[in-house]
Amino acid sequence: MIKYLLFCLVLFYSCSPNAYQKTQKIQNKKIDSLKNELSIKTEITIYDSLQQALDVQYIPTVNFGLRKPNFVIIHHTAQDSVGQTIKTFSLSRTQVSAHYLISQSGKIIHLLNNNLRAWHAGAAQWGNVTDINSCSIGIELDNNGLTPFAPKQINSLLTLLKSLKIAYKIPTKNFIGHADIAPMRKNDPSIFFPWKLLSDNGFGLWYDSADVMPPTDFDFENALRRIGYDTSNLNAAIVAFKLHFVQIDVLPTLFNWDKCVLWNVYKKY
């Protein structure tokens, strides 16, 4: 009888449809195409100004490896559910993805190998880095941007960040948000995100105190640029800074308190 029950159990699970079998096949196929791209064409043809092919010899080195993530970018999904986000990431036409998705209950969903390049940052810049996708890990939090983040969700995030920081030796200051790197397009994670809590745990910087005004000749725009913000649109950069470090208002104006905070944060970079 026991053997019969075990047989039925095995049969049941072997016949159960895998909800993500199709997307797994697509991901595997794309990984295979990347392998082929690496192996098929190791030599390239280089032309001079007269369109004459140069004599280029290919001699393989033995020293190389996969990409090393150096940033973690945190997002909120701005969608209604984990299921909706997974569906968005499973459709080729959306052209968006991330490495991880964390539900409000704290469940961590790993979507893509950390060594592969997810499409989560879009057109973005932080300091001199303009291809954020190539050097970062993207983490999506199931949140519509209008409500506080669930405690279990943040606890799981802290656990994940600790693992990533150790595995890839990511600098403390390189844990930032989508709005930080794309101030003219994005506002995630929202004003509700607990950046101070993350900083207290070693992920991202925070100000020590904000009771000292900066010098009268303090260059606020240069300070924002020094931290990493793209100041080509200064108002957007100010809003992004306040979204992260002030979280009282997100007006494109630096009031006295904001200036104190900026001065303190600036001195850490």
| Estimated radius of gyration | 23 Å
- Give the mean pLDDT: 88
Number of domains: 2
CATH class of the largest domain: Alpha Beta
> CATH topology of the largest domain, which one?
Lysozyme-like
The percent range for strand residues is: 5-15%
Structural class: alpha/beta
pLDDT < 50 stretches: 1-17
Number of helical segments with 4 or more residues: 9
Please trace the helix and strand order, writing H or E for each element. Answer: HHEHEEEHEHHHHH
Under CATH, the homologous superfamily of the largest domain reads: Peptidoglycan recognition protein-like
CATH architecture of the largest domain: 3-Layer(aba) Sandwich
How far apart are the termini? 69 Å
Structure description:
With about 270 residues, the chain is α/β, with parallel strands linked by helices. It folds into two domains: about 65-205, Lysozyme-like (3-Layer(aba) Sandwich); about 205-269, no CATH class. It is built from nine helices and five strands; from the N terminus they run ααβαβββαβααααα. It has helices at about 1-15, 20-40, 80-90, 150-170, 180, 195-200, 220-225, 235-245, 255-265; strands at about 70-75, 100, 110, 135-140, 175. It has a five-stranded mixed beta sheet. Helix 7 crosses helix 9 (about 255-265). The protein starts with a helix and ends with a helix.
Descriptive tags:
269 residues, alpha/beta, 2 domains, five-stranded mixed β-sheet, 5 strands, disordered N terminus
Please provide a brief summary of the model.
By secondary structure, the protein is α/β, with parallel strands linked by helices.
